[in-house]
Design goal:
359 residues, alpha/beta, 9-stranded mixed sheet, 10 helices, 37% helix, Gfo/Idh/MocA-like oxidoreductase N-terminal domain-containing protein, oxidoreductase activity, Gfo/Idh/MocA-like_OxRdtase_N, NAD(P)-bd_dom_sf
Amino acid sequence: MANQLPQISVIGAGIFVKTQYIPRLAEISHLFVLKSIWSRSEESAREAVEVAKEHFPGVECKWGDKGLDEIIQDESILGVAVVLAAQYQVDMSLKLLKAGKHVLQEKPAASSISEIETSLSSYKSICANSPGYPIWAVAENYRFEPALLESKKLLADIGKMMSVQLIIEASMNSANPYFSSSWRRNYTGGFILDMGVHFIAGLRMLVGCEVTSVSAMTSHVDTTLPPPDNISSVFHLENGCSGVFAMVVSSKSPKILWRIVGINGTVEIGRGKEGGQHGYTISFYGAGGHCKSNFYPFSGVTDELKAFLHDISQANLQGSSYEVEPRLSFIEGARDVAVLDAMLESGNKNGALVQVKKF
């Protein structure tokens, strides 16, 4: 039975792989075979494999150029999860796609508009010259989070949209395992881009249309963080509505809130915890002022992994005729980056209006 399951490898062995990917993959271990974990160094690879062996006793340890070549040459491996520092992810993804592997790349999709444009051109060329159609997916769990999916349904009841507010007060401090991450500190946009794509993805999915233009101001207040660490932006949507995006990278009072106001009601989505589980609470305020609330625990990471496994299995059977899950597509991840890129550009231009690049 096991040889009928799709076999995958994980490229990367950092904190996120050990604390998030392996536990989430373990929840759905009946759906696939984890063939190997790769890292540039033998030490990192062995550390991650040691964690994974509790759930995947047969997982192999790969490292360096030789180990990567072995993964590329292994025809039994259908898909690869690329979980590296953002500066290296796109090049690695393209290398694996060229070898015919399906790729699930961690967000952000790219570091800049120019990298997106170059990457899309390369991917188009790879697909044109490939006997199959290698899938390039971006792991954006917010497009799969139950709270956001349910909230999107509720928006039909609030009538014409009048205002959208998105407030992120994160807690990126020395107690956070990613605080000292060197690549985030040497990355254009830093924590704003790395963290912010989640919330832009949720925003775009909720409102069901694109952000067309932005005007933003940025600042650098907490000198223990790379600049900028604060951003406040007004954005304009295709549907004619405008909204506000405000993000603080390190706050003493963490808060994440979406609030969408319509002519007949309001939907509010707030980060919280219930019964020991982290997730989001949805509150719907109807025309009569009554409020109905429901809590939805996080499950987006597991659900996106399930979707990728389903896609690579079906693509292997059906070939290029198979239509992949659009929420996973590289182009969706690119559109998230494009919004934040425009905000950061506007901040660098003292709030000048910037059009969001279309993809």
